[in-house]
Amino acid sequence: MILILQSLSADIATLHRIGALAEPQQTFEFAPHALRCVGLSFTEHVSVIQEKIATLAFQEQVDVHWINSNHQLADFKLLAMDMDSTLITIECIDEIADMQGLKPQVAAITEAAMRGEIAFAESLTQRVALLKGLPATALQQVYDERLQLSPGAEKMLQAVQAAGLKTLLVSGGFTFFTDRVKSKLNLDYSHSNQLEILDGKLTGRVIGGIVDAEEKRRTVERICAELRILPSQAIVMGDGANDLAMMEIAGLSVAFRAKPVVRAKADIALNFVGLDGILNFL
Question: Where is the catalytic site (predicted)?
Protein backbone atom coordinates (compact mmCIF):
# COMPACT_ATOMS: atom_id res chain seq x y z
CA MET A 1 0.00 0.00 0.00
CA ILE A 2 1.14 3.52 -0.85
CA LEU A 3 -0.05 6.71 0.83
CA ILE A 4 -0.25 9.93 -1.19
CA LEU A 5 -0.89 13.27 0.48
CA GLN A 6 -1.45 16.49 -1.45
CA SER A 7 -2.80 19.96 -0.82
CA LEU A 8 -3.16 23.36 -2.39
CA SER A 9 -1.92 25.18 0.68
CA ALA A 10 -0.41 22.90 3.35
CA ASP A 11 3.40 23.05 3.48
CA ILE A 12 5.56 19.98 3.05
CA ALA A 13 6.30 19.84 6.80
CA THR A 14 2.60 19.41 7.48
CA LEU A 15 2.40 16.59 4.95
CA HIS A 16 5.37 14.86 6.58
CA ARG A 17 3.69 15.20 9.98
CA ILE A 18 0.52 13.57 8.70
CA GLY A 19 2.37 10.87 6.78
CA ALA A 20 4.46 9.97 9.81
CA LEU A 21 1.37 8.42 11.40
CA ALA A 22 1.68 5.58 8.85
CA GLU A 23 5.33 5.03 9.82
CA PRO A 24 6.67 4.96 6.23
CA GLN A 25 10.09 3.56 5.43
CA GLN A 26 10.55 6.20 2.72
CA THR A 27 8.91 9.47 1.70
CA PHE A 28 9.22 11.28 -1.61
CA GLU A 29 8.44 14.96 -2.14
CA PHE A 30 7.36 14.89 -5.78
CA ALA A 31 5.55 18.23 -6.05
CA PRO A 32 5.55 21.45 -3.97
CA HIS A 33 2.56 20.28 -1.95
CA ALA A 34 2.59 16.50 -2.52
CA LEU A 35 4.16 13.60 -0.66
CA ARG A 36 4.34 9.89 -1.44
CA CYS A 37 4.85 7.51 1.49
CA VAL A 38 5.93 3.92 0.88
CA GLY A 39 6.89 0.92 3.02
CA LEU A 40 4.14 1.65 5.52
CA SER A 41 4.10 0.11 8.99
CA PHE A 42 0.99 -0.16 11.12
CA THR A 43 1.54 -0.62 14.85
CA GLU A 44 -2.20 -0.16 15.25
CA HIS A 45 -4.97 -1.63 13.09
CA VAL A 46 -4.86 -0.11 9.63
CA SER A 47 -8.39 1.30 9.95
CA VAL A 48 -7.38 3.15 13.13
CA ILE A 49 -4.36 4.70 11.44
CA GLN A 50 -6.41 5.63 8.39
CA GLU A 51 -9.01 7.34 10.57
CA LYS A 52 -6.35 9.32 12.44
CA ILE A 53 -4.76 10.43 9.18
CA ALA A 54 -8.14 11.30 7.64
CA THR A 55 -9.09 13.47 10.63
CA LEU A 56 -5.80 15.37 10.74
CA ALA A 57 -5.66 15.75 6.97
CA PHE A 58 -9.19 17.18 6.78
CA GLN A 59 -8.25 19.79 9.40
CA GLU A 60 -5.28 20.82 7.26
CA GLN A 61 -7.22 20.63 3.95
CA VAL A 62 -5.06 17.79 2.67
CA ASP A 63 -6.28 15.09 0.29
CA VAL A 64 -5.45 11.54 1.38
CA HIS A 65 -5.18 8.65 -1.04
CA TRP A 66 -4.40 5.01 -0.25
CA ILE A 67 -3.45 3.09 -3.37
CA ASN A 68 -2.44 -0.51 -3.95
CA SER A 69 -0.98 -0.15 -7.43
CA ASN A 70 0.82 2.40 -9.52
CA HIS A 71 -0.98 3.83 -12.54
CA GLN A 72 0.76 5.57 -15.42
CA LEU A 73 -0.69 7.82 -18.08
CA ALA A 74 0.58 5.28 -20.61
CA ASP A 75 -1.95 2.79 -19.21
CA PHE A 76 -4.82 4.93 -20.51
CA LYS A 77 -6.06 6.11 -23.90
CA LEU A 78 -9.09 8.29 -23.03
CA LEU A 79 -9.99 10.93 -20.47
CA ALA A 80 -13.76 11.43 -20.10
CA MET A 81 -14.91 14.42 -18.06
CA ASP A 82 -18.14 15.80 -16.75
CA MET A 83 -18.37 19.56 -17.35
CA ASP A 84 -20.44 21.42 -14.76
CA SER A 85 -18.70 21.59 -11.35
CA THR A 86 -15.95 19.32 -12.69
CA LEU A 87 -14.10 20.77 -15.67
CA ILE A 88 -15.71 24.16 -14.95
CA THR A 89 -16.56 25.76 -11.62
CA ILE A 90 -20.25 26.49 -12.22
CA GLU A 91 -23.52 24.70 -12.90
CA CYS A 92 -24.48 26.47 -16.11
CA ILE A 93 -28.20 25.91 -15.71
CA ASP A 94 -28.14 27.53 -12.27
CA GLU A 95 -26.42 30.60 -13.70
CA ILE A 96 -28.86 30.78 -16.61
CA ALA A 97 -31.70 30.62 -14.10
CA ASP A 98 -30.12 33.51 -12.22
CA MET A 99 -30.92 35.66 -15.26
CA GLN A 100 -34.60 34.86 -14.58
CA GLY A 101 -34.30 35.45 -10.84
CA LEU A 102 -34.88 31.72 -10.34
CA LYS A 103 -31.45 30.52 -9.24
CA PRO A 104 -32.51 29.33 -5.74
CA GLN A 105 -35.32 27.15 -7.13
CA VAL A 106 -33.23 25.67 -9.93
CA ALA A 107 -30.12 25.23 -7.79
CA ALA A 108 -32.12 23.26 -5.21
CA ILE A 109 -33.25 20.80 -7.90
CA THR A 110 -29.68 20.59 -9.26
CA GLU A 111 -28.30 19.80 -5.83
CA ALA A 112 -30.88 17.08 -5.20
CA ALA A 113 -30.08 15.50 -8.57
CA MET A 114 -26.32 15.56 -7.95
CA ARG A 115 -26.85 13.86 -4.59
CA GLY A 116 -28.88 11.17 -6.32
CA GLU A 117 -32.15 12.08 -4.62
CA ILE A 118 -34.05 12.70 -7.86
CA ALA A 119 -33.66 11.12 -11.31
CA PHE A 120 -31.48 13.31 -13.51
CA ALA A 121 -33.81 13.33 -16.53
CA GLU A 122 -36.73 14.38 -14.35
CA SER A 123 -34.66 17.08 -12.68
CA LEU A 124 -33.44 18.48 -16.00
CA THR A 125 -36.97 18.60 -17.41
CA GLN A 126 -38.15 20.51 -14.34
CA ARG A 127 -35.25 22.96 -14.43
CA VAL A 128 -35.35 23.67 -18.17
CA ALA A 129 -39.10 24.30 -17.98
CA LEU A 130 -38.42 27.13 -15.55
CA LEU A 131 -36.26 28.84 -18.18
CA LYS A 132 -39.14 29.25 -20.66
CA GLY A 133 -39.20 32.71 -22.21
CA LEU A 134 -35.64 33.67 -21.28
CA PRO A 135 -33.78 35.44 -24.12
CA ALA A 136 -31.17 33.15 -25.65
CA THR A 137 -28.62 35.95 -25.24
CA ALA A 138 -28.46 34.92 -21.56
CA LEU A 139 -26.44 31.85 -22.59
CA GLN A 140 -23.66 33.96 -24.07
CA GLN A 141 -23.73 36.21 -21.03
CA VAL A 142 -23.22 33.21 -18.72
CA TYR A 143 -20.37 31.95 -20.91
CA ASP A 144 -18.65 35.35 -21.06
CA GLU A 145 -19.14 36.47 -17.47
CA ARG A 146 -19.37 33.38 -15.26
CA LEU A 147 -17.86 30.30 -16.85
CA GLN A 148 -14.39 29.53 -15.48
CA LEU A 149 -12.25 26.43 -15.67
CA SER A 150 -11.68 24.55 -12.44
CA PRO A 151 -8.28 24.94 -10.77
CA GLY A 152 -5.63 22.80 -12.43
CA ALA A 153 -7.78 22.05 -15.50
CA GLU A 154 -5.39 23.44 -18.10
CA LYS A 155 -2.31 21.85 -16.51
CA MET A 156 -4.06 18.49 -16.35
CA LEU A 157 -5.20 18.68 -19.98
CA GLN A 158 -1.78 19.72 -21.22
CA ALA A 159 -0.22 16.64 -19.61
CA VAL A 160 -2.98 14.31 -20.77
CA GLN A 161 -2.94 15.56 -24.35
CA ALA A 162 0.86 15.50 -24.49
CA ALA A 163 0.69 11.84 -23.46
CA GLY A 164 -1.56 11.13 -26.44
CA LEU A 165 -4.86 10.49 -24.65
CA LYS A 166 -8.08 11.43 -26.42
CA THR A 167 -10.45 13.68 -24.50
CA LEU A 168 -14.22 13.52 -24.12
CA LEU A 169 -16.50 16.08 -22.52
CA VAL A 170 -19.76 14.32 -21.65
CA SER A 171 -22.29 16.47 -19.86
CA GLY A 172 -25.83 16.69 -18.63
CA GLY A 173 -25.47 20.38 -19.47
CA PHE A 174 -25.93 22.08 -22.80
CA THR A 175 -24.30 22.07 -26.22
CA PHE A 176 -24.04 25.87 -26.18
CA PHE A 177 -21.38 25.53 -23.49
CA THR A 178 -19.80 22.17 -24.30
CA ASP A 179 -19.19 23.19 -27.92
CA ARG A 180 -17.36 26.33 -26.83
CA VAL A 181 -15.35 24.61 -24.11
CA LYS A 182 -14.43 21.79 -26.51
CA SER A 183 -13.14 24.30 -29.05
CA LYS A 184 -11.31 26.43 -26.48
CA LEU A 185 -9.47 23.46 -24.96
CA ASN A 186 -8.98 21.48 -28.19
CA LEU A 187 -10.91 18.47 -26.88
CA ASP A 188 -11.64 15.56 -29.19
CA TYR A 189 -15.29 14.75 -28.42
CA SER A 190 -18.28 16.26 -26.63
CA HIS A 191 -21.86 15.18 -25.99
CA SER A 192 -24.59 17.05 -24.10
CA ASN A 193 -28.18 18.31 -24.25
CA GLN A 194 -29.51 20.82 -26.77
CA LEU A 195 -31.82 23.58 -25.59
CA GLU A 196 -34.71 24.43 -27.89
CA ILE A 197 -34.71 28.08 -28.97
CA LEU A 198 -37.51 29.73 -30.97
CA ASP A 199 -37.69 33.40 -31.92
CA GLY A 200 -34.61 34.12 -29.84
CA LYS A 201 -36.06 32.70 -26.63
CA LEU A 202 -35.77 29.45 -24.70
CA THR A 203 -38.91 27.31 -25.01
CA GLY A 204 -38.35 25.43 -21.76
CA ARG A 205 -37.67 22.19 -23.62
CA VAL A 206 -34.69 20.06 -24.67
CA ILE A 207 -34.36 18.80 -28.25
CA GLY A 208 -33.95 15.03 -28.48
CA GLY A 209 -33.04 12.61 -25.74
CA ILE A 210 -31.61 13.70 -22.41
CA VAL A 211 -28.00 12.97 -21.55
CA ASP A 212 -28.55 11.26 -18.21
CA ALA A 213 -26.40 8.77 -16.29
CA GLU A 214 -27.00 5.86 -18.68
CA GLU A 215 -26.44 8.02 -21.75
CA LYS A 216 -23.16 9.21 -20.27
CA ARG A 217 -22.12 5.59 -19.80
CA ARG A 218 -23.19 4.68 -23.33
CA THR A 219 -21.21 7.63 -24.67
CA VAL A 220 -18.02 6.50 -22.97
CA GLU A 221 -18.58 2.98 -24.29
CA ARG A 222 -19.25 4.31 -27.81
CA ILE A 223 -16.11 6.45 -27.88
CA CYS A 224 -14.04 3.56 -26.52
CA ALA A 225 -15.42 1.36 -29.31
CA GLU A 226 -14.56 4.01 -31.93
CA LEU A 227 -11.02 4.19 -30.54
CA ARG A 228 -10.83 0.39 -30.35
CA ILE A 229 -9.92 0.46 -26.69
CA LEU A 230 -11.48 -1.04 -23.57
CA PRO A 231 -13.37 1.08 -21.00
CA SER A 232 -10.66 -0.05 -18.57
CA GLN A 233 -8.31 2.16 -20.59
CA ALA A 234 -10.40 5.24 -19.76
CA ILE A 235 -10.11 7.71 -16.91
CA VAL A 236 -13.50 9.15 -15.97
CA MET A 237 -13.98 12.27 -13.83
CA GLY A 238 -17.19 13.58 -12.28
CA ASP A 239 -18.86 15.08 -9.25
CA GLY A 240 -22.52 14.03 -9.22
CA ALA A 241 -24.66 10.92 -9.00
CA ASN A 242 -25.32 11.07 -12.74
CA ASP A 243 -21.60 10.41 -13.29
CA LEU A 244 -21.52 7.14 -11.37
CA ALA A 245 -22.61 4.88 -14.24
CA MET A 246 -19.75 5.98 -16.48
CA MET A 247 -17.31 5.98 -13.58
CA GLU A 248 -18.16 2.35 -12.82
CA ILE A 249 -16.83 1.10 -16.16
CA ALA A 250 -13.62 3.15 -16.12
CA GLY A 251 -10.15 1.87 -15.41
CA LEU A 252 -9.70 4.84 -13.06
CA SER A 253 -12.58 6.88 -11.61
CA VAL A 254 -11.96 10.33 -10.15
CA ALA A 255 -14.35 12.29 -7.93
CA PHE A 256 -13.63 16.02 -8.06
CA ARG A 257 -15.01 18.06 -5.14
CA ALA A 258 -17.88 15.66 -5.40
CA LYS A 259 -21.02 14.71 -3.54
CA PRO A 260 -20.55 12.09 -0.77
CA VAL A 261 -22.16 9.28 -2.79
CA VAL A 262 -19.61 9.88 -5.56
CA ARG A 263 -16.58 10.25 -3.28
CA ALA A 264 -17.44 6.95 -1.61
CA LYS A 265 -17.41 5.01 -4.89
CA ALA A 266 -14.55 6.66 -6.78
CA ASP A 267 -11.05 5.24 -6.96
CA ILE A 268 -9.64 8.69 -6.20
CA ALA A 269 -11.33 11.67 -4.54
CA LEU A 270 -9.86 15.14 -5.05
CA ASN A 271 -11.55 17.26 -2.37
CA PHE A 272 -9.13 20.15 -1.91
CA VAL A 273 -6.57 20.12 -4.73
CA GLY A 274 -7.16 21.03 -8.36
CA LEU A 275 -7.82 18.73 -11.28
CA ASP A 276 -4.08 18.47 -11.87
CA GLY A 277 -3.92 16.53 -8.61
CA ILE A 278 -4.65 13.44 -10.71
CA LEU A 279 -1.18 13.78 -12.25
CA ASN A 280 0.39 12.88 -8.91
CA PHE A 281 -1.00 9.35 -9.39
CA LEU A 282 0.17 8.97 -12.98
Answer: 82 (nucleophile), 84 (proton donor)
